[in-house]
Structures are given as structure tokens and as C-alpha cells.
Amino acid sequence: MDDPAKAARAADRARIAALDAEIHELQQRIHALQTEQKSCQQRLDAYKYPVLTLPNEITSEIFVHFLPAYPKYPQLTGLDSPSSLTHICRKWRDIAKATPKLWRAISTTIYTANQAEQTRVVQTWLAKSGSCPLSIQM
Predict the structure, then answer these.
(1) pLDDT tens digits for range 7-59
(2) Cα–Cα distance for residue pair 109/26, rounded to 1 Å
(3) pLDDT confidence of 96, banded at 50, 70, 90?
(4) What is the CA radius of gyration of the chain?
(5) CA atoms lying within 13 Å on the CB side of residue 78
(6) Burial class (CB in 10 A: 0-12, 13-18, 19+), 128
(7) Distance spanning both ends of the chain, measured CA to CA
(8) What string of DSSP letters covers 32-100?
């Protein structure tokens, strides 16, 4: 009985050695892939999108032209809202928040299903409009 048990233990030891070797190879492959991934990410991080190299004043002016002509009102939310510009990247968010003309025309409904949310959005717009003359439709 000792011979089969001894043979089984020897087979298990050999299998463990083979698994250790395979794990080592896979760890080396993972390390190589992680190194390549890091290199690709560094190249992407170093890339400057041409639109992001524009001066903030130019970008701000482009944003203003995104809106309907004043005193017409953009949507408070959605793709046609100046708020959508704040969801592109940090730089655009900062520029949009610092451009009072984007927030100077507001159209709101007095009675809505989500009155609290609409009130919050209107208050945010009013705060961002700064000292610009306002056009408000209720």
C-alpha cells in the first residue's frame, strides 16, 4: 500500500512544481502587460486635445454661441442645456461655471413633479449668472 501512496505524493509534488512554474510564467506575462498598459496610459495622459489648448476666453465665447440668442432660453437640463458643457471634462466645467452669460436666461415652470430639483437648478443658475442682466420666464 505504501507504493501507490508514495507514487501519488510524488505525482502531487511534480504537479505542484509544474503549477508553480506556470504561475510564475503567468505572473511575468501579467507584469509585462501591466508595464505596457502603463506606457500606453502615460502617452494618453501626455496628449493634449487641440480644443483644450484654446485660451479660456475663446472657449467661453464658443460656449456662449452654443446657446440660443439672448434673451431666448436654453433648456434647464439635457443636451441643449449649458449644464451639459460641465459634463465633458474638468476644464470645460471650470470654464462654463466661470461664464455668467451661459446662465443668464432661465425658463422654468412653477408647478412640476420635481419642484425641489427644479428649484435647486434655478438657484444654481442664478448664482452662476453673476451680474449679467437676467431673462426669466415662468
Answers:
(1) 999 999 999 999 999 999 999 999 999 999 999 999 998 888 888 889 999 99
(2) 61
(3) very high
(4) 30
(5) 6
(6) buried
(7) 93
(8) HHHHHHHHHHHHHHH---GGGGS-HHHHHHHHHHHSPSTTS---SSSTTSGGGGGGS-HHHHHHHHT-G
